Amino acid sequence: MGTSLFDLAGQVAVVTGSSRGIGLAAARALAGQGATVVLNGRRPEAVLPVRDALRADGLAVDVACFDVNDVPAATAALDELQARHGRIDIFFANAGINHRAPLLEFEQPVFEQVLFTNLTAQWAIARHAARHMVARGHGRILFTGSVTALRGRRNVTAYTAAKGALHALVRQWSAELADRGVTVNALAPGYIRTELTQALQDDAEFDAWLRAATPAGRWGTPQDLAAAVVFISSREAGFMTGQVLTVDGGLTAAL
Ligand code: NDP
């Protein structure tokens, strides 16, 4: 009997922003493949019940609560995880925020905050994870990009700037890290039913537009991204780096 594909037994995966939404679905999927998964969010009261639910399902789960905007706290948490588990194999830089406002009214301080959370903090924390990976000669770094960086949409100027930069960064990081055993890729999800998109889900006009524009004819779910996260995180995907993988029901492929 051969070994199964995408087996993550013995590996440690850190997923930021995994108390709900895309991060939670990714964490559950990675743990389901045998990884020990470290959950993250800002609030222990949100993260700890999720940890307990996953443990009740027999999954190996640890917790590291930090705000990604506090980069020193986040990098210290990664050092603690490295010391506790002896390895960080997979780092999914997934925590993110959005602020919707028309371009001509978008406040610069808000632009800078969204850019910091979605880009600068991701860059700094994932880079720290990469240091631990390079030291062991193996790692998988995954950012959450967005289809908003692939097509122009209204009201998301800061979010788009940050996600577009992440798409560019994976190419640049791959050039520096591929020969160190570390792959760097991004997911570009389409519109996914989570708290982040609640206002859009409640907007009947947007809902109708999305269903019509998406060949699959529906919103995505966090679970729709889980298989892509497992694949990119696997040892078998070691020759894939510097890529942005779009998972959007065909939205950006359609005319
Ligand atoms: P949710 O709002 O459902 O979840 C966001 C998660 O991130 C929560 O666990 C939240 O926990 C955590 N989080 C938010 N801010 C911080 C912070 N400063 N520090 C640490 N954790 C934080 O969002 P989604 O699951 O939809 O989004 C996840 C990622 O996917 C984001 O990067 C988003 O931009 C991206 N994305 C989402 C799409 C969608 O349609 N939903 C489409 C394309 C990309 P808590 O608030 O408790 O801290």
UniProtKB/TrEMBL annotation:
InterPro entries: NAD(P)-bd_dom_sf, Sc_DH/Rdtase_CS, SDR_fam. Keywords: Oxidoreductase. Coiled coil: none annotated. The keyword Membrane does not apply. One of its GO terms (molecular function) is oxidoreductase activity. Pfam families: adh_short_C2 (PF13561). Belongs to the short-chain dehydrogenases/reductases (SDR) family. This is SDR family oxidoreductase.
